[in-house]
Structure formats: C-alpha cells, structure tokens
Amino acid sequence: MEQQNNEMVKFENSPPTGMQVVLREFKKDKLAIISFLGITFLIIGFLVAAMFLNQEEILKIKLLERYTEPGVNGYKLGTDEAGRDMLGQLVIGAKNSILIAFAITIITSIAGIGLGIVMGYYGGFIDNLFMRITEFFMTLPNLMVIIVFVTIIPKYGIFELILIISLFQWMSTARLVRSKALSEGRRDYVSASKTMGTSDFAIMFKGILPNLSSILIVELTLNFAGNVGIETGLSFLGFGLPPSTPSLGTLVNYARNPIVLSEKWWVWLPASILILILMLGINYVGQALRRAADAKQRIG
Amino acid sequence: MWKTIVRRVLLMIPQMFVLSLFIFILAKQMPGDPFTGLITPETSPARLEELRIQAGFYDPWYVQYYHWITNAFQGDFGRSYTYKIAVSTLIGERGLNTFWLSLLSAIFIYLIAIPLGVLAGRYQESFLDKSITLYSFISYAIPTFVLSLIFVFIFGYKLMWFPTSGTVDVGLEPGTMAYYWNKIYHLLLPALTYAILGTTATIQYLRSEIIDAKTQDYVKTARSKGIPMRKVYTRHIFRNSLLPIAAFLGFTITGLLAGSIFIETIYGFPGMGQLFINSIMSRDYSVITALVMLYGFLTLLGSLLSDIIMSIVDPRIRID
Amino acid sequence: MKKNWLLLSVIFAVMFVLAACNNDGKEAAKTGDGNKEKSTQTEPNKEDTAKFPMEVKNEGDAIKGGTLKVALVTDTPFKGVFIPELSDDAYDSTILDYAKNEIFELDGDFQVKDTGIAKLEVDKDNKKAKITIQGDVKWSDGQPLTADDLIYPYEIIGHPDYDGVRYDDDFENIVGAKEYHDGKEKTISGIKKIDDKSIEITFKKVSPAIYSVGDGLWGYAAPKHQLESIPVKDALIASDAVRKNPVTLGAFKIDKVVNGESVQLVANEHYFKGKPKLDKVVIEVVPSTSIGEALKTGKYDLAEHYPTNQFDSIKDLSNISIVSRPELSYSYIGFKVGKYDKANRKNIFDAKSKMNDESLRQAVGYAMDIESVTEKFYQGLRVRANSLIPPVFASYYDGTLEGYHYDPEKAKELLEKAGYKDVDGDGIREDKDGKKFTLRLAAMSGSDTDEAIAEYYRQNWKEVGLNVELTTGRLIEFNSFYDKVKADDPEIDMFMAAWKTGTNPSPAGLYGEGAEFNFSRFVSADLTKMLEDIDSEKSMDPDHRAKAFRTWQEYMSKTATTMPMYFRTELFPVNKRVKNFNVDYANETKSALQTIELTADAPVK
Fold it and tell me: What is the pTM of this model?
C-alpha cells in the first residue's frame, strides 16, 4: 500500500528525464555512440584479455630481450629495459587502472551520494555537522595529503591506493547531491510522501535519488576520467604503484627517463594513447549525458 | 554581506586549527626524520641521536604540537631542517615564484580559453565547436609531464627560444629592467605549458554558459527588437557569461597553486609544489606542516573570494 | 563520419609530433647497438672500474679569460650553505669545490701532503699535531690568513649552540672539546696558538686516520674576521657571510647567488696558487630529465653529479668528452645476524639467528648474477665488487679476493651440503628441519631500474631454490628503509644498501662492535681485534696498516655477513672547448682550478 503510493507520487512528479532522454540524446550524437561502444569494447576487452594472460611470465625479467623493438622476436609492442613484454604489460596495466578508477568512483559515489542526500534531506543540525566535515576535507590539499598518507602506510598496493584516494575524493559528489537534494526536498512530492508516512529512507533513495540520476551520471562519468588521471599523477611524483603492478600510470611514467621518451617510444606511447582514447571517449559520452540532463544544452 | 564575510572569516579559525592538528600528527607519523638522510660513515649516529633529542622528536606529540602552535601564533613556523632557514623566509621566497607562475598561467589560460569558449558556444555543434571541444578534452587527457618534456625539448633545446630551468639568470642585477624581463622570460614556457593543459574547465564552462544564454529571454527580446546578433553577443551574452568566470578567479588561482607540483618538478622551477615534494622526501616536518596549512588557508580564502565576487556581480546570489 | 576523421587525425598529429622528437633518437639507437657489440668483444677488466680516461686534453689556443659553465644535475634546489662547518649537503659542497677553504692537499691515497696552504706535522708520542701556514696566504678580501682562522672552525663546531653534524665522537677526541661544548670552558684547552702562523692540537689518541684528516682534525679554515661578530646560534647559518658572500681561500669567490638555482663565481686574485686564468664560473642547477639535451646543445662545459643511468644520452655526443673515475663508495648486501642494544650502544651477535649460516649467505651471493646486472642495467658503469674497500684506496684494497661471482651450481651445492633441501619437490628449498623457508629482502626504491634489478635477483635465487620475498612487498623508500634496517625489523633477513666511504676508509665506524651503522650486527672477537689493529698505533706504519686492511677484507669476504655488490663509476661529461680536465683523485683539476682554460668563446655545439 505504502509502496504503491510512493511509486505513484514519484511517477506524477518526476520530470521527463531518465533513460529515454539519454537514449534520445545519444541517437542524435553519433560520436557519443561510437565513443560509448568504443570504450565499452575496450574496457571489456582489456578485462577479459587480462584474465587469459600469465602475469608472472609477462613480468619475468629477461635481460637478453632488453628494449626489443616492436615486432621483433614476436613482441608486438616490444619490451622494456628488463625485457618484459609491453603488450602484456599494457593489457594488465589497463586492467589495473580501469579497476582502480572504477573502484574509486564507486566508493566515492556511494559515500558522496549517501552523505549528500542525508544532509540535503534532513537539513538543520545534521546538515550543519556534515557540511563542516565536508568543508574540512575540502580545505585539505588533496594531492599533498594523499602523498603524506602514502608515505605513512607500511604496505602499499592497489587496495590501499584505492582506499586512500577514495578518502579524499568524495566531497564534490556529496556537495552536489546535497544542493540538489535540498531543492528537491522542498518539492511537493516529498512533502506529500511525508504526510503519507513514507519512511525517510524510502523518500530519500526511492523518491529523491532517481530524480538526481541524470546529473549524477554526468558527475560519475567525469569522476571516472579524473580518477584515471590521479593515479597517473601519483606515479609521476613517485608515489604510485610499483612496476611489479603495472598500471597505465606506471607505463606512461617510463617516459620520465629522457632516453625512453625520445628513443624507446614503444614503452610509453601505447599507454599514453590508450589513456587519451579512454579520456576522449568518456568525455564525449559525458557530454551527451550532460545534454540529456540539461535541456538547454541540447542540440537543435 | 559584511556580517557573512566576518562570520566566514571567524569560521576559518577553527578550521585552520583542526587542519593544523591533523597535518601535524600525520607528518610525524612518516617513517624516518630529517636526520635519516644524513647517514654516511662520516656522520656519527650518536650525534644524529643527540640532534633528534635536541629537536624534541622524542617528546610526546602533544608537547611538540603545543610548542609548534604557540610559536605559530606568533608567526614563527620554525626552521626548515634541510634548508636551515626560517620556514616563513623559505616559503616566502618559493611562494613568490609559484605565485608569479600561477598568475602568468592564469592570464594565459584566460587568453586561450575565453575566445575558444565563446566561439565554441556561439557556433554550437559546428566544426569549429567540435575541434575546440576535442582540443579541450585532449589537453585534459595528456599527462602534464609528457607535454612539458616535449616542450622543453622542442622550444628549449631544439629551437632555443626559451630558457629551460630556473627563474632568472645569475649575472643580472636585481631591480633592473633586464632582471625583471629575464624573470618573465623564464616563466613563459612553464606558464604556457600549464595554460595549454589547464583550459578545459574554463572552455567547457564558458561554452555552456553561452549556449544557456542564447535561450534567455533578454536575448530573445533583443533579437525581436532587431538588434543584430553580433551586437547581442558583444553587449549582452558575452558580458553575462564572463562574469561567473571572473568569479571563479579565486578558485582558479588556488587550483593553479596546487597543480604547480608537476610543472615545477619538470622545469626545475623552485616553487612551492617542488618544495613540498622535496620536503616529503627529506621529512622536513616544519615545511610540510606550514605548506599544507598555507594551501588550506588559500583554499578557504579562494572560495570566500569567489563567493564575494559572485555576490557582487550577481545580486541574486547571497553568500552564506 | 567527419567526426571520426577528426579524432583520428588529431591522434596522428600527436604521434607525428612525438615521432619528430624521435628523429635523431633512431640514429643514436643504431650506433648504440654498435657500441654494445664492441663492449662485448673487449671483455672489460673486472677490477678496472674506470671505463673512460680520467683526463681529457683538447687542442686549440686558449682564449683570454672566459666563463666556465657548470651544470649541477639535481632535481632539488641546492641548500646554499657555503661554509663547510655548517654544510651537510653534497651539492653545496660541489659548489664549494670552486671556492673552498681547504688548507690541506691530499695525495692519491688521500694522505695529507706538503703542498697545501698548511703543513701537518704529527707528534704521535705526545699525541699532538702542529699545523703551520706556509708562506703568505690571503683571504679573497685581501686579509691575511692567520692562526686564528685555523682555530675558529673548531670554535664553531664545538660551540654549545652548534647544531650541525660535525660535532661528534671524533671531534671529542680533541682534548677539551667536550668541556667547551658543554659550556664548562671558554676555549678548547687542547688547541693552542703557537704564533701567527701555526697552531698545535692535542688529542686523546692519534690513529693513522689523522693523516687523512681524521681523528677530529678539521681540514678547513674559517675567516674569523668576517664571522666573529655573528652568533653561532641560528644567526650564522642564515647570514650573508655564509649564504651570499663568504670570504674564501679558493680559486674563485662567490659573486652572486640566486637561491637554490645558480651561483656566479669570479676569479680570486689572492688565490695562493695564482689568479685563475678564467674570469668566471657559473654553476646552474639542471633537472636530470634534460641534462643530456642541455649538453648536446652546448649549454654547459661540465656536468657535475651526472646521473649514470643517463649514460646513453651523452655517449655519442661529438661535442663532449667523457671522463670518469671510481666513486669512493660501494654497494652491498647485508645479512641480519643480531640486534643492536641501544642502551649499551653495542651490537649483539645472535648465533641462533636465521641468517647465521655461512653456507647460506655464501650461496645467496653465488646465486646472484651481478655480472649481467652491471653489464646490462648499468652498462658497465658499475662493476662487481670483490671487497669492502674500493680499489681507489690502492694501498689497502685487496685485488686478489675472488668475492662472490655468479655460480648457481656452487650455490646449489652449498645449500645442499648445509641441509637446505627441497623436501616437497616444488622447486623451492625447505630449511634444515624441512619447514617452508622464505628469505625477506629489504631494498631501497629509486628508479624503475632498481625495481627490475631486485626482481632479477629474486629470479636468480629462485633458480637455486631460494624463495626470496620483498619486505613490505615492494621496494622501500629511503627513509623507511633506514628506519627499518636500523631498528633490526624482524621482517628483514637481508638488505641491499650502499656506503660512501669518504677519504678515510677505516671500517671501524661501519663494522665495529659499538657501531650503530654495523647494520648486519655481526660481531666477533677476531673482527674486533682486526678493526682495532687497523686504527692502532702500530698501523701508523703504512705497511702494517695495509696488511691489517687485507686481513680484515679476507675475513669479511669469508664470513660474508656483508657482501660487496658493486663499485660505481662517476661520470663527468666535459665540453670540447675545455682545454684540459682531470678527475684523478691524485691530480685533480679541482685542486688546481687556476689552470683551467677554454679554447672558444662558447661551448662547442
């Protein structure tokens, strides 16, 4: 009974956003479709391919194969200074980087959305309290604090990297959701649900959240792109993953050595191009999504 | 409005206080200390131990923190363990370098981003728009250091147009015109690199602002009165869309300060970002703490400034 | 469709730009291969660490004056403390090389010779040393160098407010130094001014180290007339006299400083060996990522602290000659066989420790393919070390030692004999009781190469059946590394590190019973005796000392608690316009800077 009412209220009040609009926007934008298909294909491709690779064999050091050029000895993308197959490393690296970015995006979204909605919905003291905490985290110079953290923890691998970055990346999502939830919370359908006795939880996550979905999708897509970037940056500063755990960041960072940059392009260029393609794809998809979320930006 | 500004400033005090506690404890948790780096057979371990005791590293953290915070209130942030000069002097010197770099970068960013953003918005979905969008996405995706290294090689060494390291040539007399020109000359290449990579947000923002504005009533009214499109753009849309960009100035500058870590490291540019990384490596506690505090303060100040500018340019927005 | 083309064309454009940067790279790669062949044909002599000559001479008539442009290769700004009493930084001291107040000159064995500003006379029976200024020497500001200037550095270092690292046990070897440091005395009682030109220092003990400026002796003078009025506490180190315009005895004097970036020095007309032929020296910090290109385009005449891992960037340059010399350092792998007792400041050897098995340690050594690592990863710029004394110390170095060359069969044999057998047949050996056996290695992080090398050694060990894991699972950052190694972290069985030896090779501070830096914690009665012998009064006789060094080296090689891995080579790229440059320790251009000349107005491109 309650459930039904709630559904009804939502139906009546939700603006015509959602999947249909997204689809419509995509249909109009071929580039977005190609990008979407492209990156989906790439991501799934790398994840699947990585499953069939023998990581230990790829990361084995073969001194005689040092800096083999692409195409020689069956190494399609050549090898690095330790004779490790670059194609294999690229696949494993892409898998790691994608998983890291995914994990961070998911963790920060859950935290950000949860907190944001609670703050926006309840307002008052809870809002105030959490807002101060959020503000505190926003004053922290992220990159710096992440670096300090990385030097402190005794063990440092993919898992720890994800947690540390997540710890300092949830705030913008939380703020965005809060402000939207704040305005959404004043709408009629919310007060209607309240008078009908719908639980707060249901209103927040079944009533308000779906109405924010389009904005959130945009936010998450762009966050995902940003998170790939953070990992690369940390590697550059020497606080990223070790070469024994290849990632796109560690591969691109081989270019820090000027000799590799100018003479051994096969070591770093493929990873760089892959990052470029992923970023472009995600951003084009994000742009189409944004248009779907904001009527004024639509084409035509 | 004054009331809110005062309130915000007052609110900064507890925020800074918590930040200081947080970063102080965090910094002390890092393995090693400023004297670890001095390990050679020629230095005696006993002497290093003595210096540690002298520096108070074995006191409980709250004692250390108390000493630090009471001094900090008097404007004394201690002495750098590596550079052995007052932290305020050191950061003052490096900070100034970074400030100039950020300022010039900001100017370049606006010089590049404003025309591109306006064009993209005005000719929405045209080939031009798409090229500009593509550029902005690519610049977002290229790792800073790759472009920097390529620029250093091409413009610094192949073409020899720009100096490749430092902030100023050593032989010049400070205070002369040549000296200042030389300083700017040293800033150009890093600032340009920085700007090329930093335009994405501004371009995208401006573009959507302009597209937004096109559907606004005032534009429709103006058009219906028969005012030519060009005039509508220069008189109305352009102005209205630029104001929020101006308001973001505060954020942009603090963002640039934080982002300078990469550029400074590659260009061998002695600024705050590079100082921070080096201080982490050498466990220069006093510098680490002071720098994080400074960045935190600037972030707060930047967001306050942006809010103030915003409320001035757009009276509908009230800051609180 | 149009859009795709756009995307593609941009990607191609990017690739094109990158390819453009590669252009000359390809040629270099080709010639690089050629070089490789050459180096494999002429098997380099393993004991000879110098791959390049120590001296370069370039033809051509010298120009008058000129400016020597020096690149200081580092990614951090220099500290800028320009007096040796307060400086503890390698880059500062490189800058100081051009303007240093050194009063002694050392020979090829790093023993004081008589040609310096001052002469050293040791009276070993009375434990005294007399230092005499030879001739009329003037500071760069024209003031005469006096005995007071020889005493002043001791008063700075010993000062109660002094907070540098030079005050240590060695310094307390001077009679009265501790009392002065504790504030009980106004002067150091053991240091006496004899006349305007000479002083006498009394020590608690003298050892052979005194001839290489050890035992508390200080090798520099300090300009008392300039520094006297500045308090040692905080003010001195921040003063202009230390950072901007220090008065010097060196060939050049500091003229202008841009903090952390560059220094301009001008010829010191009062230099005791005569006014330098050059007008100026300009030293600039250059990031390691671009130094190769900078040398290629002729921006610098000389690069100091050139990173050897970027040897490829300079090896084929036609405008550069490379000179090299062995570094005063060695890399080693150490095995934890005890603990440091902090309360009693003593190392305690633990006979029951996991690594206390000579055969195991030796097998670890034989299993390591150090030869390939030095050849492939270090391009011969490091060679396998056979001893804990670098060969530069010719009189002490034992060239006959075999060390632990790559011999996996021997490693297997040793392990088999010692009882480490593969019981369960998984290819990994179990310990003597048949239980799972894993060694944990701590290694320092640095470049990507370090990571690859550590992995390679782990593969080597696996081949002989030893399972080696990295402590913490990855390479450890410098500070944490020494924190863990120093604290005898139970997660560490063995560790890879390096020591710079300085000019006094006495091993007591690194392997003695009381030495905290004796990280392997190995102590034995024999060892203690040998170490004492090296620094004993008997060893004031060079022959005796040389013999004592050899005995110790052989003992250390056999017990293998600390195993030498590499000797390193230092590279100095020198532009062809520099008329001559010598880096031989015995005959360094750096100690005869007045002779440097240039043959062109600008560095050769």
Answer: 0.85
